[in-house]
Amino acid sequence: MPSWSTRSTTGDLIPRAKKRCAKPGCKEVAPCKRHKVWKESSGTRQLPGNWSTLKKQARNFATKICVFCGLRDPGGQVDHVINRAEGGTDDPSNLGWACARCHDRKTEEEKLRGILRAQKKSPPPPKGRRAL
What we know:
Helix content: 10-25%
Distance between the termini: 48 Å
Order of helices and strands: EEHEEH
Structural class: alpha+beta
Number of strands: 4
Largest sheet: 2 strands, antiparallel
C-alpha cells in the first residue's frame, strides 16, 4: 500500500514512491533484508534522517582536520564527540571530523565502556547458587 504524503494542486493525495535499497544494482525496496541500511550506526541506534545535512555542519568538515589530534585526514569521517550512548546529541556542536586513527581508537574505547555499562545492568547471580 502506498504511503500518502502530499496533495496535488486539485487537493488530491499523491502517493509517495517507495525507496529502493541504497546498494547499487539491488532492486529490493528499502530497507533491504540482504544489505544493511545505510543510515544504521555501528550500535543499535539509528542515525537521524537529516544526517547528511548534519554531518556537513560538523566542525572541521570542510578542512578535514581531526578535532582530536589536529592532523588533516581526508579519509576520516564525522564522529560524535560525546557519543549518543553517553548522553551526546546529534547537534552540529557535538559533531566533528575525526581522522581514521582517532576514530578507530575512540570507537574501541566507547565499545569497552558500553560493555562495562551492560555488565553493570545485568542482575547479580542469586546468593547461594553458582553462576552458569
